[in-house]
Design brief:
three-stranded mixed beta sheet, 52% helix, mainly alpha, 5 strands
């Protein structure tokens, strides 16, 4: 997906410190490091690529939106702070919401489809 976005110069990506921390945690789990090893990537390389592609925003407020996972509220907070056009996630709880405050929540496949337009 990052390659698709990079090919479109007008696209901007946003994250927050809380989301970067969560990504680092997920990528250092054994299941993730095994998958990364299969494709010949190291955790630090993936994180560096991600950080390079992103603009970091600092949400002032984290709304309570996702009933079963407060961590997912960080995604919503970052989208609101960035004034995002849409959220891209593979998280079922977020995808089930469909949108929040008129910000559509899309799967990676849906986002790539929109980018390729």
């Amino acid at each position: 997906m990052l390659d698709a976005i990079r090919s479109r110069g007008e696209a901007r990506l946003f994250t927050s410190p809380a989301l970067l921390d969560e990504l680092a945690d997920v990528l250092t789990r054994p299941s993730a490091t095994k998958r990364l090893a299969i494709i010949g990537r190291m955790v630090r390389e993936v994180l560096a690529d991600y950080v390079e592609a992103m603009e970091v925003v600092e949400p002032e407020h984290v709304p309570r939106v996702v009933p079963d996972d407060a961590d997912d509220d960080q995604v919503i907070a970052a989208a609101l702070a960035a004034g995002a056009d849409w959220v891209v996630s593979g998280d079922a709880d977020l995808l089930t919401l469909g949108s929040y405050q008129n910000i559509p929540i899309l799967s990676a496949a849906q986002a790539v489809q929109r980018i390729a337009g």
